[in-house]
Amino acid sequence: MSHTTIDIQSYKNTYQKLKSAIEGLSEEQLKWKPAPDKWSVTEVLSHLTDHSIVFSFRIRKLISEHAAQLPPFQQDPWVSESRANEGSANDIIDVFGVLLTYNSLLFDRLPADAWSRTGINFKGEPVTLLQSFQSFIKHVDTHLLQIDRIKNAYQ
Fold first, then answer.
1. Number of folded domains in the chain?
2. Partners of 128 in beta bridges
3. Which of 18, 102, 117, 139 has the lowest tally of Cβ within 10 angstroms?
4. H or E stretch including 128?
């Protein structure tokens, strides 16, 4: 039985949106970069999965610690040093989906007041679980637009 009053369907939908965005793309299209300093579709997916890992950690800090310090992460080195573009886009997106499912199960168990629990972000600003949740969804939507730009630039 769900204790949450937050509709988490938009969070769950991010996985299918990403799957749809890469549907039918060849391996070459998934790994193609519009410029040497820009990400490929595979690298965008890797970044979103990395972000999901960090978000998963932040969720647990927010619900379990008073005034939790929410960690930042260095997205570009995470993508480049993990050699993300050498990975499989399908494997990467599968991990994203598993994390999404795991977090969704947690969200379903949370009491309504958990969504107002607050931590401190790397800028020193207070952030609630609800704000982090909404920011995650917006972040995925921003990168879906990036994936569309990469696909449109591929020749």
1. 1
2. 118
3. 102
4. strand 126-128
DSSP helix/strand/coil, 120: strand
Q: Which residue range forms the structural domain that includes residue 97?
A: 9-153
Q: Is residue 33 situated within a structural domain?
A: yes
Residue (of 52, 58, 39, 50) closest to 78 by Cα position = 50
For residue 4, tell me if it sits in a domain.
no
**Degrees to nearest 5, angle at CA 99 with 47 and 104:** 125
Pairing of strands 68-69, 118-120: parallel
Q: Report yes or no on whether pTM surpasses 0.85.
A: yes
pLDDT tens per residue, range 70-119: 999 999 999 999 999 999 999 999 999 999 999 999 999 999 999 999 99
The DSSP 8-state label assigned to residue 85 in this structure reads: G
Q: Helix or strand or coil: residue 127?
A: strand
